[in-house]
Design brief:
The chain is mostly helical. It contains 12 helices and 3 strands, in the order ααααααααααβββαα.
């Protein structure tokens, strides 16, 4: 009993100190990894924030959000962390929006609607609309895959959402997302049949007896590594119907097909029955 009392009494100060420690690092302790801003860059960032109604109290967050990781070669950047957070926040609110706005869309088609609302094309469009390409800091690197500026714009936009979430809270981040992403019109009806995009396009081509599109790898980098990325285009003759990128050939092809369906096959989608009993993985448009 004496020994037990000794251990308990000796642990009490330690327990009190542990309980008093904050669970999260206060935002005021946030440190930036971005290099020093020039007066011109600082002014441009400030103007950008004012034009878009971004009232961030921590200027370091804004600087890190607008400084892509490529700008600081071989450096650990906060931009990647902010982008990861922004991606999750955007995905969460997109899923919530689709769930409440389109209650009749089957569960397997929700991802198709979310991708149109917040996928690469939407990110690039919103990024250009708010003026990110004019202020973002980045550098082209030798392994960059075509349209690198579009991908950087998308990444920086997600980081900006993450910074807004950290600085102003969930409410401010949601207002920004709703205004810029969910106000864009979409035809939700076509998404009920786009759960399996390759199977759907295959059925459309066979039914309409149109020339079968062909998928081609436009660019690739890091093949065979966890950081692999592919850019795939879907072509009908010399006309590119759509494109998409992903961490595998299959993912990039699927996104390219989905892009083509949205752009060129809306009427055909409405007229055809959704294919059933077809394995999506067994279909490819690669030669």
């Amino acid at each position: 009993m004496v020994m037990r009392s000794f251990f308990l009494s000796s642990r009490q100060p330690l327990l009190r100190r542990s309980c008093q420690r904050p669970l999260l690092t206060p935002l005021r302790s946030y440190t930036t990894s971005a290099t020093h801003l020039s007066p011109a860059e600082s002014a441009a960032f400030s103007t950008f924030a004012q034009q878009n109604g971004l009232q961030l109290t921590n200027s370091k967050l804004l600087s890190d959000a607008l400084t892509h990781s490529s700008f600081l070669k071989n450096s650990d950047t906060q931009n990647d962390r902010l982008r990861f957070l922004g991606h999750k926040v955007l995905s969460m609110y997109a899923a919530e929006h689709v769930h409440t706005t389109y209650p009749d869309i089957p569960a397997e088609s929700v991802n198709s609607v979310v991708e149109q609302l917040t996928g690469p094309e939407a990110l690039q469009a919103v990024g250009r609309k708010v003026g990110i390409p004019k202020v973002m800091r980045w550098k082209v690197w030798e392994k960059s895959i075509g349209n690198a500026d579009n991908k950087v714009t998308s990444s920086v936009l997600q980081a900006l959402i993450g910074a807004l979430y950290l600085d102003q809270g969930a409410g401010a981040a949601k207002v920004f997302i709703v205004e810029h992403f969910f106000s864009r019109p979409i035809d939700a009806s076509i998404h009920t049949k786009m759960a399996d995009p390759k199977a759907l396009l295959d059925a459309i081509v066979r039914t309409s007896k149109r020339e079968r599109p062909v998928a081609r790898i436009l660019r690739e980098a890091g093949g065979g590594t966890p950081a692999a990325i592919y850019m795939v285009g879907l072509f009908q003759g010399d006309v590119k119907l759509g494109d998409g990128y992903g961490s595998s050939r299959e993912q990039a092809e699927s996104r390219a097909v989905r892009s083509a369906l949205r752009k060129h096959f809306k009427e055909e989608i409405k007229a055809i029955e959704a294919p059933s009993g077809v394995e999506e993985e067994s279909i490819t448009f690669f030669p």
